[in-house]
Design brief:
The chain is an alpha/beta fold and 297 residues long. Helix content is 33%, strand content 24%. The protein has a nine-stranded mixed β-sheet. Strands 2-3 form a two-stranded antiparallel ribbon. A two-stranded antiparallel sheet has the order 7-13. Bound molecules: uridine 5'-triphosphate (UTP).
């Protein structure tokens, strides 16, 4: 493997979905603004971008998603109120929410699938590799998930996605990869070369139990593949179809993620994320653990 690709500077965060798994909470509030402990879900993804060296975040938004734009905008009235009341730490926290990132917004007028949402960002991304982060997925591990994928992409020149082992009875909820270990890589047994992907297969038809988590670093060719992908069930354009074309061209790696993935767009996944992130929180963790122990479950 040799280093041969452009630097990854941009990340696309598609946030235009309808969030039907989380109704009624998501009827008027974007799913990505649901709060885990003290931050909206989308802020976890933006912080991962900052920790991964991303310079420019592109949100693909839709109707009813204004709260996301407001969250990452400056709030001068709030900041001066906090300053006047001596709450300097809170004022700084509000001021630094987007961590100096450049932020752009584009619209997906109709929720026509994740692949379609990514395609909506094509002009803003241009001809360079870029990251995609699902805003309802929290990745918590020893290194920022997106940074690891950027390193793989920059070293190999190919796309890279994170996968995790999922129980057989849950493979029908994931994109599942058919992949073989890549020899002599610095990621050891965790790096696999993807031969194919299957979207939400039955347990019998699944080529493995390695499910796609929601973090991707992709070369710009993916836009050509998505632009020529025919809509599937429900008129949606799936990102998986574009990934299959990358895999056919021998340009896609999967990396088994070393940390924990929370699908917080799902009610149970959201509860797991809330409990585990609260237990890890430096200010709340100790008291919360005492509270949970007291429940005598
Ligand atoms: P999901 O499939 O989890 O989101 O897509 P959804 O469609 O909103 O959720 P459910 O299944 O109905 O509950 C993952 C991410 O991709 C975005 C979503 O906003 C979410 O952050 N997405 C999905 C789009 O931006 N556009 C789409 O057409 C579909």
């Amino acid at each position: 493997m040799t280093g041969k690709t452009k630097k990854v500077r941009k990340a696309v965060l598609p946030v235009a979905g309808l969030g039907t798994r989380f109704l009624p909470a998501t009827k008027a509030i974007p799913k990505e603004m649901l709060t885990v402990v003290d931050k909206p879900l989308i802020q976890y993804a933006v912080e991962e971008c900052i920790a991964s060296g991303i310079e420019h975040v592109i949100f693909v938004t839709g109707r009813r998603k204004n709260a996301i734009e407001d969250h990452f905008d400056l709030a001068p009235e709030l900041e001066s109120f906090l300053e006047q009341h001596g709450k300097h730490d809170a004022a700084r926290m509000v001021h630094e929410i987007s961590g100096g990132l450049r932020i752009s917004y584009t619209r997906q007028s109709e929720a026509l699938g994740l692949g379609h949402a990514v395609l909506c960002a094509a002009e803003l991304v241009g001809d360079e590799p870029f990251a995609v982060l699902l805003g309802d997925v929290i990745m918590d591990g020893p290194v920022p998930a997106t940074r690891e994928l950027i390193e793989i992409c920059e070293e190999t020149g190919a796309g890279a996605i994170h996968v995790e082992r999922v129980p057989r009875e849950r493979v029908h909820l994931y994109g599942i990869v058919d992949a073989a270990p890549e020899k002599n890589s610095r990621w050891g047994d965790r790096l696999l070369r993807v031969k194919n992907l299957v979207e939400k297969p039955s347990a019998e038809k699944a080529p493995s139990n390695l499910g796609v988590t929601g973090r991707y670093v992709l070369p710009p060719e993916i836009f050509d593949y998505l632009a020529t992908t025919k809509p599937g069930t429900g008129g949606e354009i799936q990102l998986t179809d574009g990934l299959c074309r990358l895999a056919e061209a021998n340009k896609l790696f999967a990396c088994i993620y070393e940390g924990k993935t929370y699908d917080a767009g799902d009610k149970l996944g959201f509860l797991e994320a809330t409990v585990e992130m609260a237990l890890k929180n430096p200010k709340l963790g100790k008291d919360f653990r005492t509270y949970l122990r007291g429940l005598n479950l």
